Each structure stands twice: as C-alpha cells, then as structure tokens.
Amino acid sequence: MAGAGNAIRGSRIGAGPMGEAERGEAAPRQTVTYFCSHDHRSVVTFSIEATAPDSWDCPKCGLPASLDSENPPPAPKTEPYKTHLAYVKERRSETEAADILDEAVALLRSRRKAGEIIF
Predict the structure, then answer these.
(1) Closest-CA residue to 37 (of 76, 91, 80, 7)
(2) Distance between CA 113 and CA 54 in Å, rounded?
(3) What is d(CA 40, CA 91) in angstroms, rounded to the nearest whole number?
(4) Is the pTM value of this prediction over 0.90?
C-alpha cells in the first residue's frame, strides 16, 4: 500500500516557471501605503500608469484607510436597525398620526354600520 504523503505529485524541485526570460518583463509598479484608525499598515501595489486611490479598505479590519499616517479616517458610524414604526415617526408628528388614526377608525365604523364585510 502506498502511504499518504504530503508530496506534490508530478512535481520536482525547480519545476515551474522558467523565470523572466520565459514570462517576459514585469510591468513597472508602484507601492502605496495606507493607514487605518487601528494602526494597521496596508501596502498595495499598483501599476505605474494607474492612479492610486485616496482611500482603501484595510484588509485586516475592514475600516477605511488613507494615505495620511497622522490622520487616518475615522471608523464609519453604524446606525442601529430601525423598525417600520421608527420610520413612520420620522415622517409624521404625533398630531398627524392621531388625525390619520381617527380618520381610519371613522371609516371602519361607517363601513360596519353600512353592513359591509371587512376582511
């Protein structure tokens, strides 16, 4: 029986790409360092022809990072989940809500008196 080893089958030391001559010249690159508010440094490589963005998401914590090490951008504020009632209260005042409720109750009572079936 053959043992279950960790060897890569069909491979030997030195196998693989032959080097620069076989692959061609690498494109010129620039490295840009970004800093987040958790003191993480992210080094990103771009093409020389590309314009590096002013901000980049930190791969370690996900916060926004900028080029300025002294003043990294603050963490974005996350607002708690709002219920449907919270959104309604933003649009209506207490008096408007009471007026709308009174109109709806009056409409239901008038339908009930008329003998309509309400589902």
Answers:
(1) 76
(2) 67
(3) 42
(4) no
